[in-house]
Amino acid sequence: MSLLGTIVSKILHPFGGGEAQAQTPGEATKTDTTSAGGGASGGASSGGDVPKVDGKVDVEAVLNDLASKAGQPLNWRTSIVDLMKLLHLDSSLSARKELAKELNYTGDTEDSATMNVWLHKQVIKKLEENGGKVPDDLKD
């Protein structure tokens, strides 16, 4: 699974209730295995503890819950590094460059500050595209 796919899956299906397929630019539209009604395919529950709003996973609630258990302050709302750490993923520059490549980043990957801001926006956008309810203040 791609790094983006792993991020989306960990947030939208934190209890393994389905496998999100993150959409990347230029790729045919895919849908995840969770129906609009909120149940995962095969009749399995997507984990009763997953906060859902209008049939969508509440991204803010999931990430705030993870942040409250992190044992360190992680600002997932603005930092791609902290978001990746929160999900127990490699947040190194090389991992972020890999994510940038997956998302077709055309900027300078040596300008990590600019790349990081772009990556965070793209990940939030992909979460919304794949069934997440994203807070309005994080939308582009």
Automatic annotation (TrEMBL):
SUPFAM superfamilies: RPA2825-like. Residues 4-135 form the DUF3597 domain. Residues 21-34 have a biased composition (Polar residues). Residues 16-53 are annotated as: Disordered. InterPro entries: DUF3597. Residues 36-46 have a biased composition (Gly residues). This is DUF3597 domain-containing protein. It comes from Methylobacterium terrae. The lineage of its organism: Bacteria, Pseudomonadati, Pseudomonadota, Alphaproteobacteria, Hyphomicrobiales.
